[in-house]
Amino acid sequence: MTVTLDFEECLKDSPRFRSEIEVVQGDVSELETRLDKLIKQCHNMLEAGKVYCHTSKSFVNGLQELGRHYSSDNLMKECIDKFSKKLLDIVEAKGEVISATQETVRMKLQSFVKEDVRKFKEVRKEFERSSESLEGALLKNAQVARGKPHEVDEASNSLLSARKTFRSEALDYVLEINVIEAKKKTDILLVMLSLIEAQAQFFQYGHKSLSELEDFKRSLGEEHTQSVLNSAREKRDMEQRHAAIKKKDMSYDDSIMDFNAEAANGIVMEGYLYKRASNAFKTWSRRWFSIQKNQLVYQKKFKDQPTVVVEDLRLCTVKPSSDERRFCFEVVSPSKSCLMQADTERQQQAWMRAVQNSIASAFQERREDPHSPRERCNSTSSGVGGGLPGEPGEGPARRDALDEVQAIAGNKQCCDCGEAGPDWASINLGITLCIVCSGIHRSLGVHFSKVRSLTLDSWEPELIKLMCELGNDAINRIYEARIQEITIKKPHPTSPRGDKETWIRSKYVEKKFIQKLPEAGGGGLPLLRRASGRRTRACTHDRSLRPPLKPKPGRATLPRLSGPSNNDLAPKKNNTGFHKAEEGQQQQQDEEEEEEEEEDLSTLHPGALLYRSAGRPNFLVMADALAHGADVNWLNTAKDSRSPLLQAVTANSLAACEFLLQNGASVNQADAHGRGPLHHATVLGHTGLVCLFLKRGADYNAKDKYQKDPIGIAVENANADIVTLGRDVPRHLPGLLAHGVEQPREAEATQRRSKVLERTHTHTHTHTHTHTHTHTHTHTHTLSHRSAAVLTPWENEERSQHSGLFCVYWSNKRTNV
């Protein structure tokens, strides 16, 4: 213990001692004042710390609630959960620091002030009291007279007693001064050490806790960098998409155009419609309609119980209404009918398709039941593509179409998500789809994808051949050529519908994954081979396809293709030897096709590439050209403004013509001589192509610059088949030919009626001919089979159907005459 005051000095009670006492008293008084202030500040700090801990815990709770918002985003959820846990641990450690500070700092300082300083003050008071008593005794002793011995003794005794008391109190006071001078150093030092230790432990714990997140923080930084790059890329794509959408017609609402057969909530279609009441006033009310669980229901408010309009959609049919209000359609059930109105024609068509697809899905689910006969699926109403009574061969025919299309490479899985056993198809793309992806394709619009059921719809031979020429593997090599370079993952069968829709739109609408066009002379393009006359499968095409250059003005000149020139198509005054010339030309063309010519495509842009490949024909190169934006109606000005469709006609490829027509080719696009595809098919004697073009709405009265129409050309060429098709079929079968322009979802009933008519005419041809028409019969068959040798098996099948038509109509005409 360090002695700050000398005990000898206190006994002397010298002025020096008194001065030192005053200094010590002032120092202790100042220390007391500052300690009181520090204690109050410590109290405020501790209270603020408690508030900080409370608000910090509230902040952590807010972070945890934010993490629950990102429950579907694993990265965000993990980041928030880990940081909030560490932050909560640090806040709890902060609470421990506050408790330690309160215990070590506040309590000890208060103890020093209340105990040690108070004791010092009490001892000082005793010292001051004894000092005053001593001064009084000294004064009294000095004032006693000599002649009063009794007073002298009393004063002496009082002085002696006061001096002894003063000395004792002075020694105690000096001792207390020395003690407090020592304790104010040691106790305060101990408090500071405790405070430093508590703060050090807190910050060490915080550093250790956050250091455990160092690796995670580094990975987050990398993820953030990648996210910034992806966001910039997506922003650029969205800006481009935004600019493209602004140019489109936005007068309709696409939000309801989404039929989702696999919706998690069971609602496959929903939206607002006007409903006409069944009361006497026939009022119209706007209600929220939905299709769910094979029922059509509506409600006014969300809390209202849905009102069931139709109990079972399988018992219903849907048809447009001729009501005075626009965009009306009617759902008819055995017990009642409901008239509804959409906002636009687009919405009307979407709702009608949704009802039809719901009916089809219901029957498909029943078909997939192992205890239910497959033929039940084929006996649905005509509104959804069901069979007609008396058509026993319809079901097996569809089964054969499904099996044949699925036999192509990759077609046993959905082209977009990989689900096994797809029974839907996109006929203009040549791919098979599951029911979910087919609904998404349908929502894209027919200009992107034309969806048809492999089991519920009728399939013409040319469509089946077209599907067999392409296939999922071949098309994916075009539309997914850059799949390894992209960040988006291809969906799988169990992926959410939103992921599948994003993928399909990116793949077919935005075309993000196709191979970019190479520069001129890059050498990255394949050699175009002329397809052989044999029927090939899409799985045999294993070459990587690269579409050629961007269009260059003035570079439309192409090498001359084999086949007849436009001069050969001019009207002929003498038709002697026409058939022989045609047969020789066809034989020469067949020989050339077997040689598989190779051609460098590095100088061709997409339009020219489509033109060239259509003349071979090479379906994969045609599909690649269309994927890269080729104009399906591109004209080769160097070759009399011929279109790709005319090239396919020259090649006598029914499937190639069907492919171009399905992708928007104009059936009446004429060349520089005013001749359309029907003119060229008539001149070349391709009866199957003539029938195809008539079904697609070709103008059989159109005349070229020589004022010749297809019928006139057929008459000059003595082609009775085409003459009959051109004159009689458009008049007697308007539903099949004159109005046969294929719609995105044409009614199946019309197709089946056409087939029934064809079978009926063929049957009539077989059993009703009389002897008086024997010569006509023979002549007809001579002409009908004249060019059968140069037709493909598919075209011969179609041709055989129309031979009966010709004989019946020719016979009827002769009878009428």
Q: Care to count the β-strands?
A: 12
Q: What's the CATH first level of the largest domain?
A: Mainly Alpha
How many domains? The number is 6
| Known CATH architecture of the largest domain | Up-down Bundle
The end-to-end distance, rounded to whole angstroms, is 148 Å
In spatial order, strands of the major sheet run 4-3-2-1-7-6-5
What fold name stands as the CATH topology of the largest domain?
Substrate Binding Domain Of Dnak, Chain:A, Domain 2
Uncertain residue segments: 370-395, 520-597, 732-817
Q: Calculate Rg over CA atoms.
A: 50 Å
The CATH homologous superfamily of the largest domain is termed Arfaptin homology (AH) domain/BAR domain
What does this structure look like?
The longest helix is centred in the N-terminal third of the chain and has 70 residues, at 74-143. The chain is rod-shaped. It is built from 25 helices and 12 strands. The protein is an alpha+beta fold. Residues 370-395, 520-597 and 732-817 have low confidence and may be disordered. A hairpin with a 7-residue loop joins strand 3 and strand 4 (307-310). The strands form 3 sheets. It has a 7-stranded antiparallel β-sheet, covered by helices on one side. It has a 3-stranded antiparallel β-sheet with strand order 9-8-10. It folds into 6 domains: 7-212, Arfaptin homology (AH) domain/BAR domain (Substrate Binding Domain Of Dnak, Chain:A, Domain 2); 216-246; 261-367, PH-domain like (Roll); 386-514, Annexin V, domain 1; 533-646, no CATH class; 667-817, Ankyrin repeat-containing domain (Serine Threonine Protein Phosphatase 5, Tetratricopeptide repeat, Alpha Horseshoe).
